[in-house]
Every structure is written in C-alpha cells, then in structure tokens.
Amino acid sequence: MFKTLAGRALVPVGLAVTGFVVVCCLLLYSAIRRGINNYAVSEATNLADTILKSTRYAMLKSDRETLATIVRNIGEQKGVEHVRIFNKKGVVNISAKAGEINRQLDKKSEGCIVCHLGPVPITTLGTMQQARRFENSAHKEVLAITAPIYNEPECFNAACHIHPSSQKILGTLDIGLSQDSLFKSLATIRIQMIIFTVMTLMLTIGGVTAMLRRSVFLPMQRLRKFVEESGKRENRLAAPPHLPQDLDRIAHCYHDLLIKLESAEQDRIASRDVSSKK
Amino acid sequence: MNNTLNAHTVGTRSESGTRDNFCQELHREIMRLRRFSNRGLWALSLFLLVCIAAWNDFSFFPLPEAFAASLGKPPSAQAVSIMLLIYTFSAIILTLSRMTAGIEHRSSFCHVGYLTVFFLFYHFAKALDDNYWAVFSAGITILGVESYRIWSFCREVIARKTEQLEYVERTGQIPTEE
Predict the structure, then answer these.
(1) Which pLDDT tens digit goes with each residue over A77-135?
(2) How far is residue A81's CA from residue A76's CA, in Å, rounded to a whole number?
(3) A8/A40 Cα distance (integer angstroms)
(4) Which residues pair with A131 in a beta bridge?
(5) Nearest 5 degrees, angle CA B56-CA B77-CA B74?
(6) What is the pTM of this model?
(7) Cα separation of A24 and B81, whole Å?
(8) First-to-last CA distance in chain A?
(9) Nearest residue of chain B to residue A27 (CA atoms)
(10) Residue among A11, A18, A27 minimizing CB distance to B148
C-alpha cells in the first residue's frame, strides 16, 4: 500500500483529515455536554428556588399539612426522583416518600459533606456546588440540588417560631431529578455527530481520491501503458494519448525521441545497404 | 619507470581508501536512518504511556486543589480546548509541510511533551474525564502523521543510499553528487 503512488498520496491526507475531524467532534461533543449539564443544573436550581418560594408561606405559618401536600405533589411529577426537607440536625422532616420521614442523614454523606467538611459549616454555595450526581437505589442516575433554607426576619420575628436570629440556616431542601432525558438527548447528539463525522470523512477522502485518480493516477497509467506499448516494434511510432499538461509534454518528448531513434536506425540500415552494394 | 609505478600504486591505494571510506560512510548513514525511522514509533509508545498515566488520573501528581493552592487557578477547560484545537491544526499543517519539503526534522518527542501538558491542564482544570479522548485522538493523529513522515523520509533516503552503495560495488567508482 505504501509503495504505490496512490497509497503514498492518500495515507497522510486520510490520516490527518480523519484525526482532525475526530478531534474537532470530540471537543465539540465535550463542549455541548458541558453546556447541557450546566443548563440542567441551573434549571434544577431554579426549580429548587421555586419550591422554596412556593412553600415559604406554609413554612411561615408552620402549616405542615400544606407543606407535605406540596412536596408530595412535586414528588409525583415525572422526572422527579425525590424531594425532602431536612431540619438543621439532618433529620428528614418532610418528604415525597413517606418512608423517609424522621430518618437521620449522615453529615458525611454525599451532598452534605460539601458544606460540612470543615468545623464550621459553609452557609452559602455557588449554583454548581449545590449540585451532585449519583446513582440511586433504583439504579437511576440522579442530579440532586441541595438548597439551604435561610433564616429571614419574618421567621425569627414571628410569634409562633422559636428560631434565634443568630441561626443562619433553618434547614435544607433536597431535590433529585432523573438524568434519563438528559442522557437520551446526549445519545442523540452523539449519534448525529458520529454520522456527520463519517459522512464528512467519506466526502473528503472520497473527493480527494476521485480527484487524484482522475487528474493523476489514470493519466499516469495511460502514460505507462503508452511507454510499454512503444517498446513493442509494431506500435513503436504510435501517437501519444491526450494527457494533462505535464504528462503530455513527457509523452511528446518520448515520442519525438522514438521518431529520431527510428530515423537514425533507418539511416544506418540505408548506409549499410549502400556500402554492401558497393 | 619505478617512480611511475609507485605513484600509480599510491594513487590506486588512495582511491581504494576513499571508496572504502565512502562505503563505510554510506553503511553508517543507512544504519542511522534505520534507527531514526523508528523515532516516530518510540514517540507514539511514550505517548501511550502518558495516556495510561492520564487514564489513572495522574495518581502520582498532587490533587488539582493542592496544585491550585500553590500555583493559582488553572485556565478553564474551554480555553484549553481552543488551544488544543489550534495546536492540532498547526501541528498537522507543519508535519504535512515538512513532508512536502522533504525535511529531516526530529520533532516527535516535543509533541509528546505538548500533549502531556494538555493532559495536565485538563487534569488541573478537573476536566480530564470529558476531554481525555480528544487529547488521545489529537496525539494519535499528530504522532501518526509524524511517524509516517519520518518513516517515508528515511525509506527514500535509505533507497538512495543503497543505490549509491550498489553503484560503488558494481563500478568501483564513487557516484557524482546530484
């Protein structure tokens, strides 16, 4: 393969084009995935904020029944894996799943350790830090958001409440969203990009091959055939085929050389005949 | 008469010595080119070793947090990706240009260095998982084209040198320079 002209011309071009297109596609896919993941996190954070705002009044009124109903209804929505509200001690106060209520959560568990790593817990987190990904007990990939419920003047000034003003965080809302639709979208993009890459490569390499074959390899083959045929006595002075410019000049030069050789040979034969008659 | 014979013998000896030196030089050059033609493959092997280390998340290096604490924030993964794209494009163009010009250039191992730096930047930006295959493909492409360039260059020169050697052995004369 590497010995032929076609192989030597096409191998480096094919390798370089294929490699570069694959690198571009991988980088593009990575950027798209990063963008979609960031968008999913920001959407989940917005959803968590919406839930907190929707439940704020019920929390202020300490209306646990309304709060539990809201949380349960959100938990029944498609794509929502879990919704929980923890108190400051890490005990699940309200959850969409009844079995989780009053369960104590370990502060070292995933999602809690981000804030509880040091001796003093962190009270504010960026959007991306609030998010975590894990596989739940049903073997589903989950994107969870942990949103703190801050102590506000309405909370510590209300007559019914007992939170001191020094307490910054009253509890935490934890919402988990299924990643299935995200993975489906990414899989579709991946397949589309693979198809696009293969088509681009086929077009590029096919186009280069076709052009090289038409402009270089076939004329070279015709030139070779002409030279080989000229070696035979009966076809010695056959006119050269029509070839692209450079090859045409080579063929004509070779043909002129053959004519000169032929004429010289005939002169030699004629002179030999004359000398033998004498 | 004796003097002329001596001069002729000395001339023949010196000619034969030059021819032997030339042949030895050709043999040495062919051996060197045979060794040099494997340079691309050695670079590729070294790159694969770096890839194995990157696959294991550079376990022998400090954690990205420790690195950021001592040297500052690393560039974003997006910036590193743009640089990787520009580097891949430039490296391929440069290699193809060298292939066209028929230049003997020993650049393979420096590409392994550049690619390792890209792996490290992604590692410290905590984006190695997402971009591992991009750097891997870039490395395989660049080092593959570079290996082919070195190998085809060496093959051509070896063929020329072998022809010269055969000419010397056949005619007993040193071929004229092209």
Answers:
(1) 888 988 988 887 778 888 888 888 888 776 666 666 666 666 666 666 666 667 888 88
(2) 8
(3) 48
(4) A145
(5) 85
(6) 0.74
(7) 10
(8) 61
(9) B134
(10) A11
